[in-house]
Amino acid sequence: MERLTSLSALANLKDRIRRGRGRDTVGLSLCYTTGCYALGSGQVHEALAAELKRRELDGQVVVQRAGCRGFCEAGPILTVQPKGIFYVRVKPEDVPEIVERTLVQGEIVERLLYKDHATGVRVAHECDVPFYKHQTRVVLRHSGHVDPQNLEDYLALDGYEALAKVLGSMTPEQVIAEVAASGLRGRGGAGFPTGRKWQLCREAKGDHKYLICNADEGDPGAFMDRSVCEGDPHAVLEGMLIAAYAIGCRHGYIYVRAEYPIAVANLTKAIADAGAIGLMGESILGTGFSFDLKIKQGAGAFVCGEETGLIASIEGRRGMPRTRPPFPAQAGLFGKPTNINNVETLACVPPIISRGAAFFASMGTEGSKGTKIFALAGKVNNTGLIEIPMGATLRRVVFDIGGGIPKGRGFKAAQMGGPSGGCIPAQHLDLPIDYDSLQAVGAMMGSGGLIVVDEDTCMVELARYFLDFVQSESCGKCVPCRVGTRRMLEILTRITRGQGKEGDVDLLEEIGTTVKIGSLCGLGQTAPNPALSTIRYFRDEYEAHVKDKRCPARVCRDLVTYTIDPEKCIACGKCKKVCPAEAVEGEKKVKHKILQDKCVRCGACFEACPMDAVLVA
Amino acid sequence: MHAALKEILARHGTSRSELIPILQEAQGAIGYLPKDAMLDVARHLNVSEAAVYGVASFYAQFYFQPQGKHRVRVCRGTACHVRGSANIRRLVEAKLGVKEGGTTPDLLFSYETVACIGACALAPVMVIDGKYYGSLTPERVESVMGDYMTKAK
Asked: Which of A218, A259, A316 sits opposite B16 (nearest CB)?
């Protein structure tokens, strides 16, 4: 493609691409991002290419390697256009049947359709799947419908229209006013108003300013930003270009986790492709506005998600946060004014500009506008990536979209905001999800990890798990975080081992409060939350561990014993085979027994037993 | 100097902000960061050896020992955790006879855990040489690890 030198050249190119694409084109769209790829979409793609070639259909049918559709549980996902037939859990061996029956004969392969958990009915079209029906996809509108490596796909939709609007008809001040009016707040967790953040950096003195996109998504159990970068990288670039224009930045960085190879590849290609047609670099679309963008790969440090830690890392230093002020808007990267936004925040910008601030502000609650993406995982039927309007209830997320808890178990709590957040128990299922409501119940929006736990999850152990994480990720610079998280972890570990002492829970609260107040950066200031919020709602579980030396959820290994019920045991040897500690005694036709002194309480026998003869107490 | 490192240094400037990309590429080429390589990087950037080691040891991604032929990574993200990844880790440890971060003496396997690989739908999950194994049960770990260990010998 030629380099575009004017706004009208972009409009012409978009027209040309759209005209070239008929509405009735037969196409297959296969999810090709981490979740589905891990489930084998690579092999499905190979099988499709081979089968289409064998049947000489390869010239007529387009196979699109699309971005994330969010419904990771059902991957690999294949949709057939133009009808929008939605096939789930597709395997390479299903390919010949799909080609023959759906592409050639126009029929639907019933057995590959999604089956509704609640009704058992198979659903033919994506729009009718309950997982999607209750969502509002604004940021994720393209994801799964464009090939992230193909700029033309993005241009055929509304791609770079917002940029053209900004460059053609808006002053930087107007852009900032529009973003401010939309009510957009930072999606990385803290929820700072984006318009005001841009304004502060725009007003900062200095000719040289930097824009950074924070894609260092490190929360365990969160993959929103990864999916956006993988599935719709040009949307991130477009958001950055608009931000750079509004603030007055000439150079930008995307700081992305090295653990996300597909995101790195897709972003790299997007930057190169945008540069090739003049949407990046010198005098973009001939307007005199210039912007260069580089990718920096993180090296595995959670604390680098904190903005001053991230800046230190780009500068080639240990990624340790520093005191603020000065804020990055005054003195950030290389000492220059710097604006840092999270991936999702930037991806919200193009729709705000194209469709207007009022459109965005029409969704959500008083203090939280627009939509939010969540990574829904844990003990829930429909795991995946979802986007809902702010203010939707947790019940809607867990039960309507998530399809409820597997195996008919009871909902216990949702852990939101990862290691910085807290748990929300069943009594708050009807809580509207927005920044302020979550804060009021001791949780936090965080970046969007939402882990559902059921009655088989021990809340004390869950708190210990998060403290273990933050303790090992603490950079060690300030004492409250370095020492405090360590002490909290020690106490929690003791409790889960049945060595809890009277007063331990109070001590946890005391240390936790001190760490929150005294820590230097967001990591430490939020690190005690998982412990404090589980104490708040599940104090009885703590007491059971400390006083009765009992784990009600039967998770803490030192507080449970495994035995075999001789009535139920059929002496099949399955438990003996999987036991890593040779703790199962018995042979064929001799009832089995667990040797308590050898048992490591891994639960392998419990999982393996076909008769439910292994008892946990 | 390691030939690959020479080529990497030639491609990068001498600004401090090149340090992490250089270390990443050096490890990519050599497999880990030997002391000599870090000394060469320090000279190239005109910073102290301590500065290079300080940065390298801060980030979890860098290794200072040779790594095994096969890399076993078990996810300990929240979704995996609530679906039983602790057991998976114990089983892998027992099978390989090394602790987290360790490498078997025959240099065939390195075992580590990762905070979250973002494949929460497949929880609990492990990745061996880039291949994902999801919805793990103790039995499946036994068979997958068994296969690798038989083939590796």
From this structure: A316
